[in-house]
Every structure is written in structure tokens, then in C-alpha cells.
Amino acid sequence: MNQQRHEGTLKKWNAERGFGFILADCDGHDIFVHATAFPDDGYLPTVGEVLTFDIEPDRSGKRSAVRVQRFNDPVPEGAKNGGWRKKLRLSKSPSASASHSPSRRGQKVVVLVLLAALAVLAYSRYAKRVGQIEAAAHSTVP
What we know:
- The chain is of the alpha+beta class and about 140 residues long.
- The protein has a 5-stranded mixed beta barrel with strand order 1-2-3-5-4.
- A hairpin with a 5-residue loop joins strand 2 and strand 3.
- It starts with 5 loop residues before the first strand and ends with a helix.
């Protein structure tokens, strides 16, 4: 599909949600852009950077930037997708693969160790207090 490439500047970017808006040079309108439209070059989108892009309607029919490239940094045809987008969580719910990643497992282990230590501390204080109460009860019995 041969379309005219457009130029614009990334005006807003919400890294937490993985989308933003490009101010198009051609008409001055804001164009929605999703994180998946950016090249897999290891760089996160940055407000103020100059971009080239194609415009296509999204599922709801609104204009959306696709096949985004950083200005004067062409991506070769057939470039492999992946990279930082795999690490970027674009939804509110964690994916199944993210819950089994090594860093996620490490976090779970740390939390479990802390909970176990807290349980041991709480039980030892409880046992000490029960011992004090029993000793007091035995010493006051005539």
C-alpha cells in the first residue's frame, strides 16, 4: 500500500498506558498513536521527537498513526518486532507470561520470605505472652 508519509512531533505520551498523540505538520491535528506503532529500536517514545508515520483508521474509524519511524532514521523492510514492547505492560492486568518471568518469581520469593519471617515473629511474641499469662496464673493459685 503506497501512502504518503506524514511528519509530526510527539506532543503527549502516556508511558504507563502505552499511547500518545502526534501533532501532525500537515493539518495541525492531533493523531492518536499506540506503542505498537513505533519501531523496535530499543528507544521509548519521547515527547518532542520528530516522527514520520502513515495514517489509517483504527477499529472505531478514528485516525491513528501507524508504522511510525523516527525522523531520518529509516527502519529496514522486514525489521523484526519485539524488544522493549515485550517488557512494556500495556494493559491493567498482567499477562500470564509476565507472572512467570524470573524477576516476578524473585519478587514473589521475597514477599513469601518476608511473610514467613513476620509469622515467626508474631508467633514467638504470642507464645511468650501465653507463657507469661500461664506463669502468672500458676503463681497466684494458693
